[in-house]
Structures
1.
Amino acid sequence: MSDIDEVYGKTFGPPDEREIEARDHLRQFFNDDQESVFFSRQLEVLHEHQYFHWITNRAVRDLEAEGSIRSEWRKLSTGTSIKLVWHRGYRFYRRSASRLVSVVEEYSDPNIGAALGLHGETMVLEGFARNRFLMAGRNTRQYGEKVWGQTEHDLDFIFERDGMAYGIEVKNTLGYMDGKEFSLKIRLCRSLGIRPVFVCRMLPKSWIHELNQSGGFALVLKYQLYPWTHRELANRVRDELGLPVDAPRSLAEGTMARFLKWHAKQT
């Protein structure tokens, strides 16, 4: 199983219709832009409205295998690596590749990553507090007398209002969260007798359906949220890589309004 398959908790057989469709779509995408360099996660996000991330990833590998695109692994200063891909006809790709890697290096810095994770939680905490939700726990796996003991996992927050309790998990990342963790956190909330709520930049529709069936809610932000102090970096990531990032001072009123509307139906 590849790294991407492990992240999404998926196993695959022969290509299905959606993967074949994605492969054709991406082949045309590269034909239309023959002098740009991309990286795998970027392509997943750019095409997520048409295809799940894992389908795009598989389609990219198919195009590599057939020779339509070229690829190269680049090691970042953090020790991790990213796969760069470009149209097979782009001979002088190195300058574009170096410029892309420079931006990725900057936002992949561990200090930036830590800041984004903490900032996402802070934004959510402020948004729920502003709407009169009471925090009943933070980084916890206990609610009342009930304790989750099957694993060491916990929830970012537990909020209460109008007799309802919600287990909140925040993922301020470009990619999907780990599929196994997603299912586990639903079970964790169920064991505590609270409703699961995931605040994420993006989730697959099939996961959102699973969450709805469990009585939970997906508060999809669509943007990765940067601190206001990092707005210049956010602008470069958005403008140079085309990725959905933003640096607002608080969660948009419309974002919390979606949750409040759903909350009202539960009470």
2.
Amino acid sequence: MIRLIAAALCALFLFESAAMAQDRVRLGYGRLVTNDLIGDGHDRWRTASIASSRVWGPDWTGSTPGGFGQLLELRLGAEIISPENITTPGVGDRPYAGSISVGVHTHFQTALAEFALGGDLVFTGPQTQLDDFQDFVHDAIGGRDLSSGVRRNQIGDDVNPTGVAEMARTLRFGAAGQVRPFIEARAGVETLVRVGADVNFGGFAQNTLLVRDPATGHRYQTIGNDLAGFSFMMGADIAHVEDSEFITESHGVELSDARSRVRAGMHYQSAEGHRAFYGLTWLDKEFKGQQDSQIVGSVRLHISF
């Protein structure tokens, strides 16, 4: 894991140096932390993730530029996926998987559509040491450790180049309402095509740059605004899933070819710039032996000093 962190830090340094050399300035930073313990209270399946983005580009005017590559996002992420029981998993349950990703994406728009295009390197397996990290957290807050069998059966070490493309259209209604249908394609660690829509009420999405969290579909702020008050957002999507490195027949698990998500959240921003977000996401079953769907919670806190 130390090597992966070092690689991510080198990527951040080189990316920032290259971005500044092209007359770009740092425009913003965003993150989202997700865990099922702040959702349905269980510790299973899509159990924990963090997404983090740093954005560079020309001076922000309230919307993405019209040129490909002008606005760049360095995206870092980590996710833990586990069987329902991490000590004695049931027959047919999904294997444990840890992943760490680093990627570069660009956001731009034309007269008719908004685009987000990019690629990530997704590292999986024991090399991420996320299994050790999960045990460390469970020892600190109380919880079960991974059994040796779960560790042995986890997804193996690999590096998965992954491409991501999203196209969307924002339609405004009322004083501060937006509905944004989108289509997304992913190819790599998971290969799928997804269609859905997001709805926002309030200042959360006004003149900001929002980035989609891969695990939940929530869109989190990377470039904010100074509009104080509460905002409400909700969304849903459905995907056709062609392949997943997290669910393989070699582990005795059969992938479901359809996957749905439904989400809702509340954002608050004070006049002083303090921001808080909490959201819930219902995640559909992802493999044939999964006994139930799940609900995960997502949170972001920003205190302005």
3.
Amino acid sequence: MYNDFMNFKKISRMILLFIIIGIVAFSMSYLIKEVKVDHSKSLPQKAVSKGPGYHRVPIIDWQDKKMVHLGDFTTNTTLTGGHRRFVKTKITVRTSNEDVSEELKLKNVLIRDSVIKAMSSKRFDEIGTAQGKLKLKEEIAKGINRIVKEGEINEVYFTEFIVQ
């Protein structure tokens, strides 16, 4: 009789375990089904093939259409004491309206060229200070504003700024 009771207890535990596993599996499948990933809202830069070369496409922020992530920029600075330094930045800009955001996507090659010219014309001691970074931001904004026609760039943000 004791063995029958022990077998009943083991079987009860196994049934309870299967029920718990079933509930967890059902819950996970329901959650996976309900979570919909919108890849258009992700922000990574993708290289896009257009013509003979590759370039980076600016990405418009899905939450704030006036914010445009221009991407990564790596340039060398002008000579400082016989040494060249490399600057790597990630730049995001705030535009005056959503039309400018679309124009930045269409004119990305001109925009990237303008930003690289502005960055590479600086010496490290010019951009190594907070004041120098502010001047560089202003110069980048002016350069982009000369290119866009639908509005203007209100603010430039460095989301990464590395000097080597």
4.
Amino acid sequence: MGEDELARMPGFGPTTARWLVGIGIDSYADIDALGSLEVYRRLQASRPGVGLNAPWALECLLLGCHWRDLPDSRKAELRRELEDGGARSPGSRG
């Protein structure tokens, strides 16, 4: 897929696409296989300061919804899982 196609996925732009390619993620299948939180952790490790909008956008991509539609309850679940150290988000497929 690559950077250009990643940048066209919902919720992503050229900067995020470049960051994803930089950590070895170059397709939807890569994101789906790893899960939103693992991809976020890898982004955070390579780019300290990446905020929580990243896992929200990744989760929405996997769930097929707009980032504005991610319920606060799901965000809270993701935050808890990040704090607990779980690798895959429960709502992601794969």
